[in-house]
Amino acid sequence: RSVYDGEEHGRFMEKLEARIRNHDREIEKMCNFHYQGFVDSITELLKVRGEAQKLKNQVTDTNRKLQNEGKELIIAMEELKQCRLQQRNISATVDKLTLCLPVLEMYSKLREQMKSKRHYPALKTLEHLEHTYLPQVSHYRFCKIMVDNIPKLREEIKEVSMSDLKDFLESIRKHSDKIGETAMKQAQQQRNLDNIVSQHPRISGGKKSKKEVCASSDVEVKNTSPMSEQDSGILDVEDEDEDEEVPGAQDLVDFSPVYRCLHIYSVLGARETFENYYRKQRRKQARLVLQPPSNMHETLDGYRKYFNQIVGFFVVEDHILHTTQGLVNRAYIDELWEMALSKTIAALRTHSSYCSDPSLVLDLKNLIVLFADTLQGYGFPVNQLFDMLLEIQDQYSETLLKKWSGVFRNILDSDNYSPIPVTNEEVYKKIVGQFPFQDAELEKQPFPKKFPFSEFVPKVYNQIKEFIYACLKFSEDLHLSSTEVDDMIRKSTNLLLTRTLSNCLQNVIKRKNVGLTELVQIIINTTHLEKSCKFLEEFITNITNVLPETVHTTKLYGTTTFKDARHAAEEEIYTNLNQKIDQFLQLADYDWMAMEPGSKASDYLVDLIGFLRSTFAVFTHLPGDVDVHSTMSGKVAQTACMSACKHLSTSLMQLLLEAEVRQLTLGALQQFNLDVEECER
To answer: What positions does the domain Exocyst complex subunit EXOC6/Sec15 C-terminal occupy (predicted)?
Structure first.
């Protein structure tokens, strides 16, 4: 290549010619060196020709002698021929025995296999015996006896293999709980892994999940040797620590009895009988599994065991579907699943309705989601389960409302209905952190100072937020859109405000011996809670990421709730004032026949006016940021004052016009007039 590329052809040819000349010289030297040997070889060859002639003469002489001696050999050969004939007869006899002996050995082997319960190899031996060995010796009488026994042996193998299948079915019925528990653990691990991957997407590349590995191994049928005939069907697996890898559900089960029995029945031409029997028995087991225990609703473990058994059942059926050809089909599995779904949902509806503990309902929801995710991983449709969870969600909301009713009652009962005093900046910031309150005037005031509201305001506000968090917990993993979650939380919160909290406030307002100071404080508190509703709206928006302007977004009715409570408190103030006035009026003791009036207003009236003066002083504590004079004083204080004056005047008129007062003196009227003037003053 380099010669052509370098264009040095001439030089290369010169070198080549020189090389040829060198080789020619070497060849010439070599020929000269061996020439004498060539001459010597020719001389030797001439000598050999003479010797060859002598050898020819000797061979001719030997042949003549051999012909003379061969006559005796021919006689010996005739004798040998007779011996060979006898030998052939003996050999034929041995061959016949050789044909019979394997048949007898195979039959003996068959009996031995039957005795040791190795039925699949026994069936293979039976086939070889029937189709390979017996036809070769069928004219013997002992073979006919064997042929007659073959159907009986086949029937015996069928019965024994069916017995193994029954043991297997009984075993998986007992262990379906463990199988289901393992499958659900595996689904939980997968879900945790998915969550980790979704949080750290960079680390997810290249690793195959446990579920994928298991799914790929599901399709492989276990190779079972005849020696494993007596396996129990369930392999023992020790309880593993949580941080160890959970075995695949199929790793717990040895399916070889099913495969053996299916193969035996297929070979015997009774596959359809086997399929029908298997499906019938599994249907019966399904009905047993789907029957919930009567006390299932009492603990979460009751539900867990119920779900484990169902999952275990369908994991086994799914594996059978993928590892046997036609023993079960998709239509059969779907039919079983439809039945299971309807019965499971009915059982859950019934039992969950007994549950009054929201934490148990939440745990049940998480368990149902795991149950659904596990079976969805095996290809079963679970939409109906998620639809049912939305029903349970309503019940969960009800249990939450009952729980929070008690919480609100405790908060309201334990409140002292007086403004919260703060002595330092730390306490002030703590309360402002718990409740959204801003007042520039209050911030400027030196410590110690007081918030206008009592302790139940931040407590109630925080409990409403806790309720919202509790609602949000239930919506997790339900595959709901953020809009649906937002709508669910808002509706539940509205129920909490309009029904639960409203009733608790009304009960406090309407209870006996409630003081005017307490009622005034309730008005102040509800005013601040009403203002906080917009912050609750923002709080919900932040956790659901659904803007309040979105179409169909449910609005919070908190404003209405607190307004209603405030109006009820105001009405209660008016009623209480009138009742107090009535109590003072009962002390009125006019002498309608007095000749001279007293020098001053009646004592009861002076006391009454003193009480009213101190009472209306309370109204000056109404929140300053609500424009005391124009709003609260104008609405609550003035209305209370008008109501009190009207009630007092009406009551005084009734005193004067009572039926028992038959006559009056001028002195009595002047005393009465003095009291009325005192009221005016």
So the answer is: 384-680
281-310 burial: b if 16+ Cβ within 10 Å, else e: ebeebbeebbebeeebbeebebbbbbbbbb
CA distances from 235 to 108, 211, 311, 603 (A): 33, 20, 18, 97
Give the global pTM: 0.66
Q: What is the CATH number of domain 586-678?
A: 1.20.58.670
Sign of CA dihedral 432, 435, 439, 441: negative
H helix runs in 219-299, sequence order = 256-267, 271-289
Each residue's pLDDT tens digit, 66-118:
888 888 888 888 889 999 999 999 998 888 788 777 777 777 877 787 777 67
Please report, for the chain, the start and end positions of each structural domain, with discontinuous segments joined by +.
140-194+247-379, 393-417+453-566, 586-678
Query: Which residue type is seen at 147?
Result: V
Burial level of 35, CB count in 10 A (0-12/13-18/19+)?
Answer: exposed
DSSP 633: I
Q: Tokens at residue 383, please?
A: 């939409």
* Cα dihedral sign, 367-368-371-372: negative
Question: How many other CB atoms are there within 10 angstroms of residue 421's CB atom?
Answer: 11
DSSP secondary structure, 68-84, as one string: HHHHHHHHHHHHHHHHH
* DSSP annotation of 621: G
546 in Cβ contact with 483 (< 8 Å): yes
C-beta atoms surrounding 225 within 10 Å: 10
Helix ranges restricted to H, 324-439: 330-352, 358-377, 383-414, 425-434
Question: Which pLDDT score is estimated for 252?
Answer: 75
Beta-bridge partner residues of 234: 253
Closest CA to 626 of 525, 516, 509, 515: 525
Read out DSSP for 30-42?
A: HHHHHHHHHHHHH
Nearest-10 crossing angle of helices 300-323, 141-199: 120
**What DSSP character marks residue 382?**
-
pLDDT tens per residue, range 234-267: 444 444 444 455 565 567 778 888 888 888 888 7
User: 411, 410, 404, 400: which is closest to 434 by C-alpha?
Assistant: 411
Question: Which tokens is 314 given?
Answer: 């369908």
Pairing of strands 421-422, 449-450: antiparallel
Read off the tokens for 378: 């095996």
Tokens linked to 385? 């389960």
Q: 393-417+453-566 has which fold?
A: Tetracycline Repressor; domain 2 (1.10.357)
Residue at 93: amino acid letter:
T
**Burial letters 153-176, b for 16+ CB under 10 A, else e:** bbeebbebbbebbeebbebbbebb
Which residues neighbour 509 within 8 Å (Cβ) at sequence distance 6 or greater? 519, 522, 565, 568, 569, 572
Q: Do residues 462 and 434 make contact, with C-beta atoms less than 8 angstroms apart?
A: yes
The whole-angstrom separation of Cα 650 and Cα 668 is: 19
Per DSSP, the three-state class of 449 is strand
Q: Does residue 485 contact residue 450 with C-beta atoms inside 8 Å?
A: no
Q: What is the largest CA-CA distance in the chain?
A: 202
Tell me how crowded residue 565 is: count the other CB atoms within 10 A of its CB.
Answer: 24
| Cα separation, 487 vs 390, whole angstroms | 13
Separation of alpha carbons 539 and 14, rounded Å:
101
Q: What DSSP state is assigned to residue 422?
A: E
pLDDT tens digits along 614-664? 888 777 655 444 443 334 444 777 888 888 899 999 998 988 888 788 888
The token duo for 598 is 């007293």
Residue 64 to residue 153: CA distance in whole angstroms = 74
Tokens coding 290: 């789907």
